[in-house]
Amino acid sequence: MARHRNVRRLDFDEERDFGDIYGRSFEDEVAISPATASQFMYPHGNTGIALSSYMKPHPLETQSEKLPSSAGASGAPTQPNQPSQPALPSQYLRSEPSIKKPDKATAPVETVTIKQSQSNTKMGFITHHRSNIDSSPARSPSPSVLPGRSTPTTTPIRQPQLTRSSLKGKQLHLIDVLSEYKKRQESEKPTINLVVIGHVDAGKSTLMGHLLFLLGHVSKRTMHKYETDSQKLGKASFLYAWILDETGEERNRGITMDIAQQQFETEHLKIHLLDAPGHRDFIPNMITGAAQADVAVLVVDATIGSFESGFESGGQTREHALLVRSLGVTQLVVAINKMDTVSWSRERFDEIVTKLKSFLKQGGYKEGDITYVPCSGMTGDNLTSTLTDSWYKGPSLAQSIDRFRPPPRPVEKPFRCCIADIFKGQGAGICVAGKIESGYVQSGETVLVVPANELTSVKTIFGGDDISAWAVAGDQVVLTLIGIDQTKLALGSVLCSPEAPVSITSLVRARIIIFNIELPITAGYPVIFHYQSVSEPAVIKKLLSQVSKTSGDVIRKKPRCLTKNSSAIVEIEISRPLSLELYSDCKDLGRFMLRYAGNTVAAGLIIKIL
Asked: Average pLDDT in the 420-427 region?
Protein backbone atom coordinates (compact mmCIF):
# COMPACT_ATOMS: atom_id res chain seq x y z
CA MET A 1 0.00 0.00 0.00
CA ALA A 2 1.28 3.44 -0.87
CA ARG A 3 2.44 5.69 1.95
CA HIS A 4 0.73 9.08 1.99
CA ARG A 5 3.42 11.40 3.23
CA ASN A 6 3.97 15.10 2.99
CA VAL A 7 7.71 15.76 2.51
CA ARG A 8 7.63 19.24 1.01
CA ARG A 9 8.77 20.92 4.21
CA LEU A 10 11.25 18.23 5.23
CA ASP A 11 14.80 19.42 5.89
CA PHE A 12 17.11 16.49 5.11
CA ASP A 13 20.12 18.31 6.56
CA GLU A 14 18.82 17.93 10.10
CA GLU A 15 19.06 14.72 12.08
CA ARG A 16 15.49 13.60 12.62
CA ASP A 17 13.51 10.49 13.38
CA PHE A 18 12.02 10.06 9.91
CA GLY A 19 9.53 7.52 11.16
CA ASP A 20 7.96 10.13 13.44
CA ILE A 21 7.97 12.79 10.71
CA TYR A 22 6.48 10.60 8.00
CA GLY A 23 4.03 8.93 10.35
CA ARG A 24 3.19 5.25 10.33
CA SER A 25 1.35 3.68 7.43
CA PHE A 26 -1.38 1.07 7.40
CA GLU A 27 1.20 -1.76 7.41
CA ASP A 28 3.07 -0.19 10.33
CA GLU A 29 -0.04 -0.33 12.52
CA VAL A 30 -1.19 -3.88 11.77
CA ALA A 31 1.62 -6.01 10.33
CA ILE A 32 5.04 -5.54 11.88
CA SER A 33 7.90 -5.72 9.35
CA PRO A 34 10.77 -8.06 10.22
CA ALA A 35 13.57 -6.27 12.08
CA THR A 36 16.48 -8.60 11.22
CA ALA A 37 17.76 -10.33 8.10
CA SER A 38 17.15 -13.76 9.59
CA GLN A 39 13.48 -13.03 9.81
CA PHE A 40 13.31 -12.70 6.01
CA MET A 41 14.77 -16.19 5.57
CA TYR A 42 11.81 -18.44 6.14
CA PRO A 43 12.46 -22.05 5.07
CA HIS A 44 9.76 -23.01 2.61
CA GLY A 45 10.19 -26.69 3.15
CA ASN A 46 7.94 -28.71 5.40
CA THR A 47 9.95 -27.99 8.52
CA GLY A 48 7.05 -27.60 10.93
CA ILE A 49 8.25 -24.16 11.91
CA ALA A 50 5.40 -21.65 12.18
CA LEU A 51 5.67 -18.32 10.41
CA SER A 52 4.68 -16.55 13.61
CA SER A 53 7.98 -17.48 15.25
CA TYR A 54 9.72 -15.09 12.84
CA MET A 55 7.46 -12.16 13.78
CA LYS A 56 9.28 -10.71 16.77
CA PRO A 57 8.12 -7.53 18.53
CA HIS A 58 9.82 -4.32 17.50
CA PRO A 59 11.90 -2.81 20.34
CA LEU A 60 10.21 0.60 19.98
CA GLU A 61 6.72 -0.74 20.45
CA THR A 62 5.13 0.00 23.80
CA GLN A 63 1.51 -1.13 23.71
CA SER A 64 0.56 -4.82 23.35
CA GLU A 65 -2.61 -6.58 22.31
CA LYS A 66 -3.34 -10.30 22.09
CA LEU A 67 -4.46 -11.52 18.65
CA PRO A 68 -4.90 -15.04 17.20
CA SER A 69 -1.92 -16.68 15.56
CA SER A 70 -0.96 -16.08 11.95
CA ALA A 71 -2.92 -18.99 10.64
CA GLY A 72 -6.02 -18.13 12.62
CA ALA A 73 -5.88 -14.46 11.74
CA SER A 74 -5.72 -15.04 8.03
CA GLY A 75 -8.59 -17.49 8.12
CA ALA A 76 -6.58 -20.43 6.58
CA PRO A 77 -3.36 -22.33 7.39
CA THR A 78 -0.17 -21.12 5.75
CA GLN A 79 0.94 -23.17 2.71
CA PRO A 80 4.64 -24.08 2.77
CA ASN A 81 5.20 -23.44 -0.98
CA GLN A 82 3.76 -19.93 -0.90
CA PRO A 83 5.82 -16.83 -0.13
CA SER A 84 5.46 -15.61 3.40
CA GLN A 85 3.34 -12.51 4.06
CA PRO A 86 2.58 -10.64 7.26
CA ALA A 87 -0.67 -11.67 8.93
CA LEU A 88 -3.60 -9.22 8.86
CA PRO A 89 -6.69 -9.25 11.09
CA SER A 90 -9.72 -10.49 9.20
CA GLN A 91 -11.62 -7.20 9.12
CA TYR A 92 -8.91 -5.70 6.86
CA LEU A 93 -9.29 -8.41 4.20
CA ARG A 94 -11.66 -8.22 1.24
CA SER A 95 -13.47 -11.36 2.32
CA GLU A 96 -14.41 -11.85 5.95
CA PRO A 97 -14.54 -15.54 6.88
CA SER A 98 -15.83 -16.33 10.33
CA ILE A 99 -13.03 -16.54 12.86
CA LYS A 100 -13.10 -19.33 15.34
CA LYS A 101 -11.46 -18.39 18.58
CA PRO A 102 -8.66 -20.82 19.52
CA ASP A 103 -9.20 -23.11 22.41
CA LYS A 104 -7.14 -22.00 25.35
CA ALA A 105 -6.39 -25.58 26.31
CA THR A 106 -5.18 -26.79 22.90
CA ALA A 107 -4.32 -23.92 20.56
CA PRO A 108 -1.60 -21.58 21.83
CA VAL A 109 -2.16 -17.85 21.46
CA GLU A 110 0.85 -15.77 20.63
CA THR A 111 1.31 -12.19 21.76
CA VAL A 112 1.75 -9.71 18.92
CA THR A 113 2.70 -6.19 19.88
CA ILE A 114 1.08 -3.36 17.99
CA LYS A 115 2.13 0.24 18.42
CA GLN A 116 -0.73 2.75 18.24
CA SER A 117 0.99 6.05 17.60
CA GLN A 118 -0.61 9.44 17.17
CA SER A 119 0.06 9.27 13.45
CA ASN A 120 -2.98 7.08 12.89
CA THR A 121 -5.26 9.99 13.58
CA LYS A 122 -3.13 12.42 11.58
CA MET A 123 -2.89 10.18 8.51
CA GLY A 124 -6.55 9.23 8.62
CA PHE A 125 -6.07 5.46 8.42
CA ILE A 126 -7.20 4.22 11.81
CA THR A 127 -9.04 6.26 14.41
CA HIS A 128 -9.41 4.98 17.96
CA HIS A 129 -11.72 6.49 20.55
CA ARG A 130 -11.90 5.25 24.10
CA SER A 131 -15.64 5.84 24.13
CA ASN A 132 -16.49 3.76 21.06
CA ILE A 133 -14.24 0.69 21.04
CA ASP A 134 -14.26 -2.54 22.97
CA SER A 135 -11.26 -2.61 25.27
CA SER A 136 -11.27 -6.41 25.47
CA PRO A 137 -7.86 -7.83 24.43
CA ALA A 138 -9.53 -10.66 22.50
CA ARG A 139 -11.07 -8.29 19.94
CA SER A 140 -9.30 -6.21 17.34
CA PRO A 141 -9.68 -2.43 17.39
CA SER A 142 -12.47 -0.89 15.30
CA PRO A 143 -10.91 0.93 12.33
CA SER A 144 -12.45 3.47 10.05
CA VAL A 145 -13.58 2.18 6.66
CA LEU A 146 -10.59 2.18 4.32
CA PRO A 147 -10.65 2.52 0.53
CA GLY A 148 -10.87 -0.90 -1.06
CA ARG A 149 -11.62 -2.62 2.23
CA SER A 150 -14.81 -4.11 3.52
CA THR A 151 -16.90 -2.49 6.22
CA PRO A 152 -15.54 -3.34 9.68
CA THR A 153 -17.60 -5.76 11.70
CA THR A 154 -17.45 -3.60 14.85
CA THR A 155 -19.30 -0.27 14.70
CA PRO A 156 -18.77 2.65 17.10
CA ILE A 157 -21.23 3.22 19.91
CA ARG A 158 -23.36 6.26 19.20
CA GLN A 159 -25.68 8.43 21.24
CA PRO A 160 -28.91 6.44 21.69
CA GLN A 161 -32.00 7.81 20.04
CA LEU A 162 -34.42 9.37 22.47
CA THR A 163 -37.40 7.03 22.55
CA ARG A 164 -39.81 6.01 25.23
CA SER A 165 -38.45 2.47 25.24
CA SER A 166 -34.85 3.66 25.64
CA LEU A 167 -35.77 5.77 28.66
CA LYS A 168 -37.08 2.83 30.66
CA GLY A 169 -34.70 1.87 33.40
CA LYS A 170 -32.46 4.90 32.90
CA GLN A 171 -33.21 6.43 36.30
CA LEU A 172 -31.40 4.73 39.15
CA HIS A 173 -32.13 6.35 42.49
CA LEU A 174 -29.37 5.20 44.77
CA ILE A 175 -30.78 6.87 47.86
CA ASP A 176 -34.14 8.11 49.05
CA VAL A 177 -33.67 11.83 48.46
CA LEU A 178 -37.03 12.84 49.92
CA SER A 179 -36.27 11.22 53.28
CA GLU A 180 -32.79 12.72 53.31
CA TYR A 181 -34.27 16.13 52.53
CA LYS A 182 -36.62 15.86 55.50
CA LYS A 183 -33.67 15.04 57.73
CA ARG A 184 -31.81 18.10 56.43
CA GLN A 185 -34.79 20.32 57.16
CA GLU A 186 -34.80 19.14 60.75
CA SER A 187 -31.06 19.51 61.34
CA GLU A 188 -29.97 22.47 59.17
CA LYS A 189 -31.02 26.04 58.50
CA PRO A 190 -33.26 26.49 55.47
CA THR A 191 -31.68 28.04 52.38
CA ILE A 192 -33.16 31.09 50.69
CA ASN A 193 -32.15 32.88 47.47
CA LEU A 194 -31.90 36.65 47.88
CA VAL A 195 -31.51 39.14 45.02
CA VAL A 196 -30.43 42.76 45.59
CA ILE A 197 -32.03 45.24 43.19
CA GLY A 198 -32.31 48.98 42.75
CA HIS A 199 -31.41 52.01 40.65
CA VAL A 200 -27.84 52.46 39.44
CA ASP A 201 -25.55 54.12 42.05
CA ALA A 202 -27.99 53.39 44.87
CA GLY A 203 -25.13 51.65 46.70
CA LYS A 204 -26.23 48.01 46.38
CA SER A 205 -22.76 46.43 46.15
CA THR A 206 -21.31 48.68 48.87
CA LEU A 207 -24.23 47.94 51.18
CA MET A 208 -24.09 44.16 50.82
CA GLY A 209 -20.28 44.07 50.74
CA HIS A 210 -20.09 45.93 54.06
CA LEU A 211 -22.74 43.59 55.47
CA LEU A 212 -20.64 40.56 54.50
CA PHE A 213 -17.59 42.14 56.14
CA LEU A 214 -19.43 42.83 59.38
CA LEU A 215 -20.78 39.29 59.43
CA GLY A 216 -17.22 37.95 59.24
CA HIS A 217 -17.30 36.54 55.71
CA VAL A 218 -14.43 38.78 54.54
CA SER A 219 -11.12 39.01 56.40
CA LYS A 220 -9.50 42.26 57.51
CA ARG A 221 -6.45 41.43 55.43
CA THR A 222 -8.57 41.22 52.28
CA MET A 223 -10.30 44.49 53.12
CA HIS A 224 -6.93 46.19 53.61
CA LYS A 225 -5.89 45.03 50.14
CA TYR A 226 -9.14 46.32 48.62
CA GLU A 227 -8.68 49.64 50.37
CA THR A 228 -5.13 50.05 49.05
CA ASP A 229 -6.03 49.03 45.50
CA SER A 230 -9.14 51.21 45.35
CA GLN A 231 -7.17 54.25 46.53
CA LYS A 232 -4.64 53.72 43.73
CA LEU A 233 -7.50 53.94 41.20
CA GLY A 234 -8.99 56.98 42.89
CA LYS A 235 -12.08 55.00 43.95
CA ALA A 236 -11.61 54.73 47.70
CA SER A 237 -15.37 54.88 48.31
CA PHE A 238 -15.83 51.61 46.36
CA LEU A 239 -13.72 49.40 48.62
CA TYR A 240 -16.71 47.48 50.04
CA ALA A 241 -18.24 47.13 46.58
CA TRP A 242 -15.13 45.27 45.45
CA ILE A 243 -16.19 42.33 47.63
CA LEU A 244 -18.93 41.60 45.08
CA ASP A 245 -17.64 43.41 41.97
CA GLU A 246 -14.67 41.19 41.21
CA THR A 247 -13.93 41.85 37.53
CA GLY A 248 -11.52 44.54 36.43
CA GLU A 249 -14.06 46.26 34.18
CA GLU A 250 -16.62 46.49 36.99
CA ARG A 251 -14.03 48.01 39.34
CA ASN A 252 -12.76 50.48 36.76
CA ARG A 253 -16.24 51.64 35.78
CA GLY A 254 -17.60 51.54 39.33
CA ILE A 255 -20.81 49.68 38.39
CA THR A 256 -22.06 46.12 38.62
CA MET A 257 -22.41 44.50 35.21
CA ASP A 258 -23.21 40.87 35.92
CA ILE A 259 -24.74 38.79 38.69
CA ALA A 260 -22.38 38.42 41.67
CA GLN A 261 -22.99 35.53 44.07
CA GLN A 262 -22.01 35.06 47.70
CA GLN A 263 -23.04 32.91 50.64
CA PHE A 264 -23.68 34.03 54.21
CA GLU A 265 -25.75 33.01 57.22
CA THR A 266 -28.03 34.78 59.64
CA GLU A 267 -29.38 33.43 62.89
CA HIS A 268 -32.05 31.28 61.27
CA LEU A 269 -31.28 31.19 57.52
CA LYS A 270 -28.64 30.32 54.97
CA ILE A 271 -28.60 33.08 52.36
CA HIS A 272 -27.52 32.68 48.75
CA LEU A 273 -26.89 36.29 47.69
CA LEU A 274 -27.41 37.49 44.10
CA ASP A 275 -26.22 41.05 43.51
CA ALA A 276 -27.96 42.29 40.35
CA PRO A 277 -26.75 45.19 38.16
CA GLY A 278 -28.71 48.43 38.34
CA HIS A 279 -27.77 50.06 35.05
CA ARG A 280 -30.50 49.91 32.44
CA ASP A 281 -28.08 48.47 29.88
CA PHE A 282 -27.80 45.31 31.99
CA ILE A 283 -31.49 44.67 32.66
CA PRO A 284 -31.28 41.23 30.94
CA ASN A 285 -28.63 40.18 33.49
CA MET A 286 -30.82 41.51 36.26
CA ILE A 287 -33.76 39.43 35.00
CA THR A 288 -31.53 36.33 35.01
CA GLY A 289 -30.70 36.87 38.67
CA ALA A 290 -34.25 37.78 39.67
CA ALA A 291 -35.58 34.61 38.03
CA GLN A 292 -33.49 32.57 40.51
CA ALA A 293 -34.55 34.52 43.61
CA ASP A 294 -37.07 33.77 46.35
CA VAL A 295 -36.95 37.16 48.10
CA ALA A 296 -35.45 40.58 47.36
CA VAL A 297 -33.80 43.62 48.93
CA LEU A 298 -34.73 46.85 47.15
CA VAL A 299 -32.05 49.50 47.72
CA VAL A 300 -32.99 53.17 47.27
CA ASP A 301 -30.80 56.24 47.65
CA ALA A 302 -32.00 58.66 50.32
CA THR A 303 -29.92 61.54 48.91
CA ILE A 304 -31.96 64.54 47.80
CA GLY A 305 -32.63 64.19 44.08
CA SER A 306 -31.19 60.69 43.77
CA PHE A 307 -34.29 58.94 45.01
CA GLU A 308 -36.49 61.02 42.73
CA SER A 309 -34.39 60.24 39.64
CA GLY A 310 -34.59 56.51 40.30
CA PHE A 311 -38.27 56.51 41.23
CA GLU A 312 -39.60 58.67 38.42
CA SER A 313 -40.52 57.32 35.00
CA GLY A 314 -37.50 55.70 33.38
CA GLY A 315 -35.76 54.94 36.70
CA GLN A 316 -34.80 51.42 37.65
CA THR A 317 -36.40 51.57 41.12
CA ARG A 318 -39.88 51.17 39.63
CA GLU A 319 -38.84 48.75 36.91
CA HIS A 320 -36.87 46.45 39.21
CA ALA A 321 -39.65 46.31 41.79
CA LEU A 322 -42.19 45.33 39.12
CA LEU A 323 -39.82 42.84 37.51
CA VAL A 324 -39.13 40.82 40.65
CA ARG A 325 -42.82 40.83 41.56
CA SER A 326 -43.70 39.52 38.10
CA LEU A 327 -41.08 36.80 38.53
CA GLY A 328 -42.70 35.52 41.71
CA VAL A 329 -41.00 37.48 44.50
CA THR A 330 -43.54 38.51 47.16
CA GLN A 331 -41.34 39.29 50.21
CA LEU A 332 -39.35 42.51 50.08
CA VAL A 333 -37.00 44.50 52.31
CA VAL A 334 -36.62 48.13 51.27
CA ALA A 335 -33.18 49.35 52.38
CA ILE A 336 -33.19 53.16 52.38
CA ASN A 337 -29.46 53.65 51.95
CA LYS A 338 -27.12 56.62 52.41
CA MET A 339 -29.06 58.02 55.35
CA ASP A 340 -25.82 59.61 56.53
CA THR A 341 -26.02 62.04 53.57
CA VAL A 342 -29.30 63.46 54.94
CA SER A 343 -28.14 63.44 58.59
CA TRP A 344 -30.51 60.57 59.40
CA SER A 345 -33.51 62.78 58.78
CA ARG A 346 -36.72 61.11 59.91
CA GLU A 347 -38.77 63.39 57.64
CA ARG A 348 -36.79 62.22 54.60
CA PHE A 349 -37.27 58.58 55.60
CA ASP A 350 -41.03 59.01 56.05
CA GLU A 351 -41.30 60.83 52.71
CA ILE A 352 -39.64 57.96 50.84
CA VAL A 353 -41.69 55.32 52.66
CA THR A 354 -44.95 57.10 51.81
CA LYS A 355 -44.16 57.20 48.09
CA LEU A 356 -42.98 53.60 47.96
CA LYS A 357 -45.95 52.20 49.89
CA SER A 358 -48.48 53.43 47.37
CA PHE A 359 -46.45 52.26 44.39
CA LEU A 360 -45.62 48.80 45.77
CA LYS A 361 -49.25 48.18 46.71
CA GLN A 362 -50.29 48.90 43.13
CA GLY A 363 -47.54 46.57 41.95
CA GLY A 364 -49.06 43.62 43.80
CA TYR A 365 -47.09 43.55 47.05
CA LYS A 366 -48.88 43.04 50.36
CA GLU A 367 -48.09 45.54 53.07
CA GLY A 368 -47.29 42.82 55.60
CA ASP A 369 -44.59 41.39 53.32
CA ILE A 370 -42.58 44.64 53.11
CA THR A 371 -40.06 45.95 55.66
CA TYR A 372 -38.49 49.45 55.47
CA VAL A 373 -35.00 49.81 57.00
CA PRO A 374 -32.88 53.02 57.13
CA CYS A 375 -29.16 52.29 56.85
CA SER A 376 -25.79 53.42 55.51
CA GLY A 377 -23.62 51.11 53.45
CA MET A 378 -20.53 53.32 53.78
CA THR A 379 -20.55 53.82 57.56
CA GLY A 380 -22.17 50.45 58.36
CA ASP A 381 -24.90 51.97 60.56
CA ASN A 382 -27.91 49.71 61.18
CA LEU A 383 -26.54 46.84 59.09
CA THR A 384 -25.99 44.20 61.79
CA SER A 385 -26.93 46.01 65.02
CA THR A 386 -29.82 48.37 65.77
CA LEU A 387 -29.29 52.03 66.51
CA THR A 388 -29.51 52.90 70.19
CA ASP A 389 -29.48 56.72 70.08
CA SER A 390 -31.77 57.23 67.09
CA TRP A 391 -35.45 57.73 66.38
CA TYR A 392 -35.51 54.39 64.52
CA LYS A 393 -36.30 51.49 66.86
CA GLY A 394 -36.91 48.75 64.27
CA PRO A 395 -34.74 45.82 63.18
CA SER A 396 -31.39 46.13 61.45
CA LEU A 397 -30.86 45.04 57.85
CA ALA A 398 -29.46 41.64 58.87
CA GLN A 399 -32.35 41.09 61.28
CA SER A 400 -34.88 42.01 58.59
CA ILE A 401 -33.30 39.53 56.18
CA ASP A 402 -33.39 36.88 58.89
CA ARG A 403 -37.20 37.31 59.11
CA PHE A 404 -37.80 36.15 55.53
CA ARG A 405 -40.03 33.08 55.31
CA PRO A 406 -38.59 30.25 53.16
CA PRO A 407 -41.03 29.50 50.32
CA PRO A 408 -42.38 25.97 49.80
CA ARG A 409 -40.19 23.78 47.61
CA PRO A 410 -41.85 21.54 44.97
CA VAL A 411 -39.48 18.63 45.63
CA GLU A 412 -42.03 15.95 44.70
CA LYS A 413 -42.58 17.30 41.17
CA PRO A 414 -40.47 16.20 38.15
CA PHE A 415 -36.88 17.41 38.06
CA ARG A 416 -36.31 20.79 36.39
CA CYS A 417 -33.12 22.89 36.32
CA CYS A 418 -32.55 25.80 33.94
CA ILE A 419 -28.92 26.34 32.86
CA ALA A 420 -27.68 29.83 33.75
CA ASP A 421 -23.95 29.29 33.11
CA ILE A 422 -21.70 26.79 31.30
CA PHE A 423 -17.98 26.33 31.84
CA LYS A 424 -15.24 23.68 31.71
CA GLY A 425 -14.22 22.26 35.05
CA GLN A 426 -10.86 20.88 36.11
CA GLY A 427 -11.73 17.23 35.55
CA ALA A 428 -13.71 15.37 32.93
CA GLY A 429 -17.12 16.65 31.98
CA ILE A 430 -18.87 19.97 31.42
CA CYS A 431 -20.04 22.09 34.36
CA VAL A 432 -23.42 23.83 34.28
CA ALA A 433 -24.77 26.17 36.94
CA GLY A 434 -28.36 27.00 37.78
CA LYS A 435 -31.18 26.75 40.27
CA ILE A 436 -33.22 23.59 40.63
CA GLU A 437 -36.79 24.75 40.10
CA SER A 438 -38.57 21.51 41.03
CA GLY A 439 -37.84 17.91 41.93
CA TYR A 440 -34.42 16.60 42.88
CA VAL A 441 -31.28 15.09 41.35
CA GLN A 442 -28.44 12.92 42.62
CA SER A 443 -25.01 11.85 41.44
CA GLY A 444 -25.02 9.12 38.83
CA GLU A 445 -28.51 9.93 37.62
CA THR A 446 -29.39 10.22 33.93
CA VAL A 447 -31.10 13.45 32.92
CA LEU A 448 -32.41 14.88 29.66
CA VAL A 449 -31.19 18.13 28.10
CA VAL A 450 -33.83 20.02 26.13
CA PRO A 451 -34.28 21.39 23.53
CA ALA A 452 -31.27 19.33 22.34
CA ASN A 453 -33.01 16.06 23.39
CA GLU A 454 -29.73 14.57 24.60
CA LEU A 455 -29.25 12.21 27.53
CA THR A 456 -26.41 12.87 29.95
CA SER A 457 -25.25 11.66 33.34
CA VAL A 458 -24.67 13.78 36.44
CA LYS A 459 -21.15 13.04 37.64
CA THR A 460 -20.90 15.41 40.62
CA ILE A 461 -23.06 17.99 42.36
CA PHE A 462 -21.60 21.12 43.95
CA GLY A 463 -23.81 23.00 46.39
CA GLY A 464 -21.97 26.15 47.42
CA ASP A 465 -18.34 25.05 48.01
CA ASP A 466 -19.10 21.46 48.97
CA ILE A 467 -19.72 18.30 46.97
CA SER A 468 -23.13 16.81 47.65
CA ALA A 469 -24.68 13.48 46.75
CA TRP A 470 -28.03 15.10 45.96
CA ALA A 471 -29.81 18.42 45.59
CA VAL A 472 -33.46 19.48 45.66
CA ALA A 473 -35.69 22.30 44.46
CA GLY A 474 -34.47 25.73 45.56
CA ASP A 475 -30.78 24.80 45.66
CA GLN A 476 -28.24 26.74 43.60
CA VAL A 477 -25.99 24.03 42.18
CA VAL A 478 -23.15 23.35 39.77
CA LEU A 479 -23.60 20.00 38.01
CA THR A 480 -20.79 18.19 36.19
CA LEU A 481 -22.24 16.41 33.16
CA ILE A 482 -20.56 13.57 31.28
CA GLY A 483 -21.44 11.75 28.09
CA ILE A 484 -22.59 14.83 26.17
CA ASP A 485 -21.06 17.22 23.68
CA GLN A 486 -20.70 20.78 24.92
CA THR A 487 -22.29 22.06 21.70
CA LYS A 488 -25.56 20.46 22.82
CA LEU A 489 -25.67 22.71 25.90
CA ALA A 490 -26.77 26.35 25.82
CA LEU A 491 -27.89 29.03 28.23
CA GLY A 492 -31.58 28.56 28.86
CA SER A 493 -31.51 24.82 28.20
CA VAL A 494 -33.39 22.83 30.79
CA LEU A 495 -32.22 19.67 32.53
CA CYS A 496 -35.24 17.53 33.27
CA SER A 497 -36.40 14.04 34.08
CA PRO A 498 -36.44 11.78 30.98
CA GLU A 499 -39.79 10.32 32.05
CA ALA A 500 -41.38 13.80 32.19
CA PRO A 501 -39.61 15.99 29.59
CA VAL A 502 -40.19 19.72 29.22
CA SER A 503 -42.17 20.90 26.19
CA ILE A 504 -40.31 22.44 23.26
CA THR A 505 -42.21 25.07 21.29
CA SER A 506 -42.02 28.47 19.64
CA LEU A 507 -45.74 29.36 19.96
CA VAL A 508 -47.49 29.89 23.30
CA ARG A 509 -50.72 31.33 24.63
CA ALA A 510 -50.16 33.54 27.63
CA ARG A 511 -51.81 35.97 29.98
CA ILE A 512 -49.87 39.22 30.13
CA ILE A 513 -50.05 42.40 32.21
CA ILE A 514 -49.15 45.59 30.37
CA PHE A 515 -46.92 48.07 32.20
CA ASN A 516 -46.81 51.83 31.82
CA ILE A 517 -46.20 52.09 28.06
CA GLU A 518 -46.43 55.10 25.77
CA LEU A 519 -47.76 53.39 22.63
CA PRO A 520 -50.53 50.76 22.59
CA ILE A 521 -49.75 47.16 21.69
CA THR A 522 -51.32 45.74 18.53
CA ALA A 523 -51.10 42.40 16.69
CA GLY A 524 -47.64 42.00 15.16
CA TYR A 525 -45.97 44.01 17.95
CA PRO A 526 -42.23 43.02 18.09
CA VAL A 527 -40.77 42.28 21.53
CA ILE A 528 -37.81 40.59 23.20
CA PHE A 529 -38.93 37.45 25.03
CA HIS A 530 -37.00 37.14 28.34
CA TYR A 531 -37.23 33.70 29.89
CA GLN A 532 -34.85 32.71 32.69
CA SER A 533 -31.38 33.33 31.15
CA VAL A 534 -32.68 33.45 27.56
CA SER A 535 -33.67 36.50 25.52
CA GLU A 536 -35.08 35.90 22.05
CA PRO A 537 -36.90 38.06 19.49
CA ALA A 538 -40.63 37.39 19.39
CA VAL A 539 -43.89 38.78 18.04
CA ILE A 540 -47.27 39.20 19.72
CA LYS A 541 -49.10 37.34 16.98
CA LYS A 542 -52.74 37.58 18.15
CA LEU A 543 -54.75 39.57 20.70
CA LEU A 544 -57.36 37.04 21.81
CA SER A 545 -59.12 38.86 24.63
CA GLN A 546 -58.79 41.58 27.23
CA VAL A 547 -59.38 40.32 30.78
CA SER A 548 -59.80 41.78 34.26
CA LYS A 549 -56.55 42.16 36.24
CA THR A 550 -58.17 40.93 39.46
CA SER A 551 -60.73 38.27 38.51
CA GLY A 552 -59.49 37.22 35.08
CA ASP A 553 -62.94 37.54 33.49
CA VAL A 554 -63.10 38.40 29.82
CA ILE A 555 -63.89 42.08 29.27
CA ARG A 556 -63.56 42.25 25.49
CA LYS A 557 -62.90 39.64 22.80
CA LYS A 558 -60.40 40.28 20.02
CA PRO A 559 -59.41 43.82 21.06
CA ARG A 560 -57.75 45.99 18.44
CA CYS A 561 -55.03 47.17 20.84
CA LEU A 562 -53.85 46.95 24.45
CA THR A 563 -53.15 50.06 26.51
CA LYS A 564 -51.11 50.58 29.69
CA ASN A 565 -52.07 48.85 32.94
CA SER A 566 -54.32 46.37 31.15
CA SER A 567 -54.35 42.57 31.08
CA ALA A 568 -54.98 40.30 28.11
CA ILE A 569 -54.74 36.80 26.64
CA VAL A 570 -52.40 36.75 23.64
CA GLU A 571 -50.49 34.38 21.38
CA ILE A 572 -46.73 34.92 21.17
CA GLU A 573 -44.50 33.48 18.47
CA ILE A 574 -40.81 33.15 19.39
CA SER A 575 -38.03 33.21 16.80
CA ARG A 576 -36.79 29.73 17.74
CA PRO A 577 -38.11 26.81 19.82
CA LEU A 578 -37.47 27.03 23.56
CA SER A 579 -37.93 24.72 26.52
CA LEU A 580 -41.10 26.09 28.10
CA GLU A 581 -43.40 24.95 30.88
CA LEU A 582 -46.97 25.77 31.83
CA TYR A 583 -47.36 28.06 34.81
CA SER A 584 -49.75 25.57 36.38
CA ASP A 585 -47.07 22.83 36.20
CA CYS A 586 -43.98 24.84 37.25
CA LYS A 587 -44.41 28.44 38.34
CA ASP A 588 -40.77 29.45 37.96
CA LEU A 589 -40.57 28.08 34.41
CA GLY A 590 -43.97 29.43 33.44
CA ARG A 591 -43.12 33.14 33.82
CA PHE A 592 -41.57 35.48 31.25
CA MET A 593 -40.98 39.17 30.53
CA LEU A 594 -41.50 41.20 27.36
CA ARG A 595 -39.26 44.17 26.57
CA TYR A 596 -39.13 46.61 23.69
CA ALA A 597 -36.67 49.43 22.92
CA GLY A 598 -34.89 49.01 26.26
CA ASN A 599 -38.09 49.14 28.35
CA THR A 600 -40.10 46.39 30.02
CA VAL A 601 -43.57 46.49 28.45
CA ALA A 602 -45.27 43.42 29.95
CA ALA A 603 -44.98 40.35 32.15
CA GLY A 604 -46.74 37.11 31.42
CA LEU A 605 -47.69 33.59 32.44
CA ILE A 606 -47.77 30.66 30.00
CA ILE A 607 -51.24 29.09 30.05
CA LYS A 608 -51.08 26.93 26.91
CA ILE A 609 -48.35 25.52 24.68
CA LEU A 610 -49.38 25.47 21.01
From this structure: 85
